[in-house]
Write a structure and sequence with these properties.
This protein has 437 residues and is α/β, with parallel strands linked by helices. Helix content is 46%, strand content 11%. Strand 13, helix 11 and strand 14 form a beta-alpha-beta unit.
């Protein structure tokens, strides 16, 4: 098969002074930072859906993307051809991983038997390309939101047959993910939620969702799949309310149904924004509870209120993210997965390279800045000093559990009044952060 991107060679690191748009300015995969290479810190992954199935369509018009290698048909031949193109792009970018939904890589057949057979055929091509290039599968997942059968949800549907179909889909996708050496398996509940509580049995749906996840855990053990299970929070779209609305909701659900030992979270920047949080908040909240699994790397647009899935280019954002990943011990076996798409107006094949190069560089720069911040320790020192009243005296008694309401009342009756607090110095710290950028 002829090269799909003959004009593009392997993207190389040329340094900050480079003016070559097809080169990395910050991502030097072998550069060592805090004892690990950039490649190992970032574990970049290219998504199959936006990158190789995205057409540039939106609610107001059909696709605009020019993809000469894709004839638009649902044929197995076209799907296999697409695999070859995908690995050419991933290999030239130097990303070590990719990720897919089952229906991204393999079209559905006339029935489940035919669909599974098609999936196996395409999986064979994926495995061949993995072996040829050394590129690995970060995670697989089943698309249980696009087909009309999932209009009421998959695991939370009101139709038992749909629940059964969803279970069969995940069973097969787990098998393929294991066959391809996938290091994780993700659940994104695209329609696991409700539009109207007047027609919804909330408890029953959430109970069913938990049963579904326990079935997945049991089947993974049965087939020997040892990858990490991940849940991806998102508050809305396409449902009005999704049960995996944010990190706190997901962790509460996992604890309530005894699933926390088996799952971690896959956090996305644009989803955090829609939930009314920063990505930094979601990462820290999840990381402090030992549940940080992986991230989807993208961003939204402050002028638009929906999930735009744009490529990250903001060094401030990527530095915040990398501060949290370093703080909580890294991202493996997860990765920095570019769940992002080129804009509708960026319709030429070369734009796929520009977009990913920019995103990879943005995270590499964020990693370097975050490491510099941590090395100097100014922020850590400030935070430690701010909470120093808990390091001794009554504060230490509170944290150790020795204090109670009675002892604290006695303490304040003797002390008389609260000592003045120190300034939070928010503006100073924001200026300090900018100094590193």
């Amino acid at each position: 098969m002829a090269a799909a991107f003959p004009e593009v060679s392997k993207i190389k690191y040329e340094g900050p002074s480079s003016r070559n748009p097809l080169a990395f300015r910050w991502y030097n995969e072998s550069e060592m930072i805090e004892g690990k290479s950039m490649k190992d810190h970032l574990r970049f992954s290219i998504v199959y859906w936006h990158t190789f199935r995205g057409t540039g369509s939106d609610p107001f018009g059909p696709g605009t993307a020019i993809r000469p290698w894709d004839d638009g048909s649902p044929s197995v031949e076209n799907a296999v051809k697409r695999v070859r193109v995908a690995f050419e792009l991933i290999e030239k970018l130097g990303a070590p991983y990719y990720a897919f939904h089952d229906r991204d890589v393999a079209p559905e057949g006339a029935n489940l038997t035919e669909t599974n057979k098609i999936f196996d055929t395409v999986a064979k091509a994926l495995k061949e390309e993995q072996q040829r290039t050394g590129i690995k599968l970060l995670w697989g997942t089943a698309n249980m939101f696009s087909h009309p059968r999932f209009m009421h949800g998959a695991a939370t549907t009101c139709n038992a047959d749909v629940f059964a179909f969803a279970a069969a889909s995940v069973k097969k996708c787990l098998e393929v993910t294991k066959e391809l050496g996938g290091e994780n398996y993700v659940f994104w509940g695209g329609r696991e939620g409700y539009q109207n509580l007047f027609n919804t049995d909330l408890k029953r749906e959430i109970d069913h969702l938990a049963k579904f996840f326990h079935m997945a855990v049991d089947y993974a053990k049965k087939i020997g799949f040892t990858g990490q299970f991940l849940i991806e929070p998102k508050p809305k779209e396409p449902t009005k309310h999704q049960y995996d609305s944010d990190a706190a909701a997901c962790l509460n659900f996992l604890r309530a149904y005894d699933l926390l030992p088996h799952f971690k979270l896959n956090l996305e920047t644009n989803h955090a924004t829609l939930a009314g949080h920063t990505m930094m908040h979601e990462l820290d909240y999840t990381g402090m509870q030992g549940a940080l699994g992986s991230i989807d790397a993208n961003t939204g647009d402050v002028m638009l209120g929906w999930d735009t899935d744009q490529f990250p280019t903001n060094y401030y954002l990527t530095t915040e993210i990398m501060l949290m990943l370093l703080k909580h011990g890294g991202i493996a076996p997860g990765g920095v997965n570019f769940d992002a798409k080129v804009r509708r107006e960026s319709f030429e094949p070369i734009d796929l390279f520009y977009a990913h190069i920019g995103g990879m560089d943005a995270f590499a720069k964020g990693l370097k800045v975050a490491a510099a911040i941590r090395a100097e320790g100014e922020f850590d020192k400030f935070v430690k000093e701010r909470y120093s009243s808990f390091d001794s005296g009554v504060g230490a008694e509170i944290e150790s559990g020795k204090a109670d309401f009675t002892s604290l009342e006695t303490y304040m009756l003797q002390k008389g009044e609260v000592s003045p607090n120190k300034s939070g110095r928010q503006e100073y710290l924001e200026n300090l952060f900018n100094r590193y950028l």
